[in-house]
């Protein structure tokens, strides 16, 4: 019997190789077992297992018969071929495309966006952690039921992620680089720490919660961060309530000019992101340098809610446009309309072009002011206008002062206190 589809790499080797430092020729990673178990030696003595090994990508993030074990009665060849198909091939190109994307390359390719969404939603489900969650959702061992559910769920997150604010951040100025885990598509919610019951076992924070960010390392130096628009507009609301219209199985529109690029992360910020990745891993992490495997030496779990003043993964709100209704016209003179959260005109809560300034407009302006106070006039991410030109790298003194006047009362008091003669 062919073993082609039995040795299952649930994190592909091509993806792992993106985290090997430049110039290193051995194609090996430092591989850390977060849950090492003792072994019995030839003398019958219990010995501690080595938690860290340096080994090739062929030996990392794989399990024999992984899919057949999780889904009884379903052939591993069916799952590997039907569920994954060419997703890895297209995903490889898409990951590389976005790792290099900075708005200065005019050759935007919508196919790469669709391929990345399909790859990320598949990658989130194909790991031991994702499969454990999926098995609980399916609740059946019937072959057809499992495959039908898997094919539907591989696009589970597409609409939610499409409507997020996208940010590609850079660790190029940091000596520490990104690590990779056995569950690479990571969800962080500052209000749901690693010990929270919603984050135990196979569970991750739900991506439809306001404060849930999805982060996905693209390479050694780049990470994609997706943030719910509702949280950018109002980070003062409950972060564990659901965003408007959390239905993921619907179409959505993506505007690539809104992607924020040119954010350079500090060493501290990279370590905090690595700690989040490690905390959300199931059992294994890997890195190009051994010391990168231990972000807990520099980052405290007790500060989970405070990374980056609570805004570690936030895009710069000053580069986010406030918009509501989207109207699309077709050649046959028909049109379609929906709001920023995918609601149709007949659905409850639809924004619509006749809506007065929304309730979250004031909080959005307030957040811009708070952000300007905390991080100064220099933008922490830059989007592009319709002309393709990037936002200014730094706000003018007049524009910066305008934002500060919208800041929260506590920051306004601090500003007055620091400017008194």
DSSP helix fraction? 25-40%
Q: Alpha-carbon distance between the termini?
A: 83 Å
| SSE order | EHEEEEEHHHHHHHEEEEEHEHEEEHHH
Unreliable residue runs:
1-5
Total strand segments: 15
Query: What general outline do the C-alpha atoms trace?
Result: globular
Question: How would a crystallographer describe the biggest sheet?
Answer: 5 strands, mixed
Overview of this protein structure:
This protein is of the alpha+beta class and 421 residues long. The protein is built from 13 helices and 15 strands. The chain has helices at 13-16, 66-70, 76-84, 87-99, 110-126, 128-138, 143-153, 158-162, 229-233, 267-280, 359-375, 397-405, 409-419, and strands at residues 7-9, 28-33, 39-40, 46-47, 52-56, 62-64, 165-170, 180-181, 186-189, 212-217, 222-227, 260-264, 284-287, 326-329, 335-338. The strands form five sheets. The protein has a five-stranded mixed sheet with strand order 9-10-11-7-12. A four-stranded antiparallel sheet has the order 5-2-13-8, covered by helices on one side. α4 (87-99) packs across α5, α5 packs across α6 and α11 (359-375) packs across α12. It is globular and about 75 Å long.
Kindly summarize this structure in a few lines.
With 421 residues, this protein is α+β, with helices and mostly antiparallel strands.
Layout of strands and helices, then pairs:
Elements: E1 7-9, H1 13-16, E2 28-33, E3 39-40, E4 46-47, E5 52-56, E6 62-64, H2 66-70, H3 76-84, H4 87-99, H5 110-126, H6 128-138, H7 143-153, H8 158-162, E7 165-170, E8 180-181, E9 186-189, E10 212-217, E11 222-227, H9 229-233, E12 260-264, H10 267-280, E13 284-287, E14 326-329, E15 335-338, H11 359-375, H12 397-405, H13 409-419
Parallel strand pairs: 7-12
Antiparallel strand pairs: 1-6, 2-5, 2-13, 3-4, 7-11, 8-13, 9-10, 10-11, 14-15
